[in-house]
Amino acid sequence: MKNGACCKHKQQEASQSWRDYLILCKPRVVLLMLFTAWIGMYLASEGTLSFSLWFFATLGIALLSGSAATVNHVLERRTDALMERTQQRPVASGRIPPQRAWAFALILGVTGFLTLYCGVNTLTALLTLATAVGYALCYTLYLKPNTPQNIVLGGLFGAMPPLLGWTSVTHSVDPQPLLLVLIIFVWTPAHFWALSVYRYSDYERASIPMLPVTHGIPYTKLHILLYSILTVASSLLVFAIGLCSWLYLAVALLLNAGLLYYAIRLFTNQNARLALKTFFYSMLYLFILFLAMAADRFLLFNG
To answer: What is the CA radius of gyration of the chain?
Structure first.
């Protein structure tokens, strides 16, 4: 009986350990990044994307993104421990020692870079590495603890996946994917500021200079509205330059109406829960907007 209980306990520990290492990679964030990279690949390939290229590009980008996320967990473990939203993260809670997390990040990073370098192309490998280093070090070490514009400046690193997907197919940096990068770049501040309004006390307790902490919630809500307007404008440029056609435009107009609705309601309302709803809607907004790009191009390629 004791041996059976011991084995069961070890299995539970192994299962928890596996889940903790997965959490280090921030899988939900990485999955959204991969999705936008896939759209970049699809738009660049004009409907003829090979499976092997898709596989190696996806694997390499996912591994390097997971490596950067793990480094973020290690470097932010002390502030994470002070925040209700993050205090149960594996490194912050002590379930995974920092040394093991560093080793895990190194393995992921090296494997991801070699996968892209050998299986995709040099340009994509170098751009993805620069993106991962920028997020893990520039954003985490310098921008986030030192400036309320952290999410604006650091947002560029999270906006890069469509370009990475595009270059994996074309081996070149072109204007079209840079527009997709612009959309995510201007979308990011409003998205995360909505969360920081809802989690204001967490960031204040951890002394992280997010915009609501340094400039106040009304000021932040105004900037959420302004960046939402910028997001609307940039999303319409996709149609204006001819990258997508009327199907995309129709979906974009509906999504933009919802984005402005939430931004205006948040600006004029004191309900804290509305900030969380705005955060979740903006996530859905980006997913459906990029999905509409793919659907529009699919009809063009197969119509």
So the answer is: 20
Taking CA 44 as the corner, what is the angle to CA 39 and CA 46, rounded to the nearest 5 degrees?
A: 95
Q: Are 179 and 129 a contacting pair, CB within 8 Å?
A: no
Instruction: State whether 183 and 163 are in the same domain.
Output: no
* Domain encompassing residue 42: 22-169
Residue 17 dihedral angles phi and psi, to the nearest 5°: -60, -45
Summarised one tens digit per residue, pLDDT across range 57-96 is 999 999 999 999 999 999 999 999 999 889 999 999 999 9
What single string gives the DSSP state of each residue in 77-142?
A: HHHHTTSTTTTTSTTTTTSS-HHHHHHHHHHHHHHHHHHHHHHT-HHHHHHHHHHHHIIIIIIIII
Confidence of residue 35 (pLDDT cuts 50, 70, 90): very high
Closest to 159 in 3D by CA, of 231, 225, 243, 59 = 231
Contacting residues for 21 by C-beta, under 8 A, at least 6 apart = 90, 96, 104
Contacts of 188 (CB under 8 A, 6+ apart): 151, 152, 155, 158, 159
Round to whole Å and give the CA distance between 167 and 186: 21
- C-alpha 62/C-alpha 130 separation (Å) is 14
Q: Whole-model pTM above 0.90? A: yes
Question: Does 90 lie in the same domain as 27?
Answer: yes
3-state secondary structure of 160: coil
Domain ends where: 169, 203, 221? 169
Question: 161 and 142, same structural domain?
Answer: yes
Same domain, 244 and 197: yes
Please give the tally of structural domains in the chain: 2
Answer whether 62's CB lies under 8 Å from 56's CB: no
Number of residues written out for the chain:
303
